[in-house]
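Hi Y.,

Following your request, here is the sequence exactly as I used it, all 181 residues.
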Amino acid sequence: MRASVPPTEALRLIKIEHDAVNELIATLSDEEMTRPDTIRYGLYSDQECSFKDLLAHLVCYEVFALEAVADWHMQTKHWVIDAMQDYCESTRIHYGGIADRQHMSLAEQIDEYQHTAQQLEALIATTSDEQWHEDAFYPTPTPTDLGGMLERIIVAPPRPMYRHLPVHIPNIADYITSLRA
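Below is the corresponding structure, written out as tokens. Let me know if you'd prefer a different format.
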């Protein structure tokens, strides 16, 4: 797939995402962030996720995106590109992002999220329009460029463009109220 927005718009949108998550981090107490089963949307029926778990889930896609861009520049196709096209593999990614980070403390999870967000913003900010629209070096069923490859990882449906948080917390004020009721 081809990028549907230029890198400047991708950066603007991803900053909105990161700002919203960071606002929640600043607002919620440690207990609220680690309380189980507080995320009600965008999960499978057997999941009982805390906000900390959601951070793990959100960051895994951004980590994969950074790895995929690094691989792209080395003319290597990252495995996640095909995995995002496969129901079983994308489900494994969904669960795996949380499971792989269960051992992390809340502080470590927040640090990983914020560090990765900064890296992703820096990467997009330093990607030229020409690089963003560079064609894939590997065979694809539809024309694909670097920006499109990133969108496939970060913006997989049903997510809004460069926004993953609203899939899981559609209304931040309502979410905070529910935690404090």
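The first helix runs from residue 7 to 27.

Thanks again,
Q.
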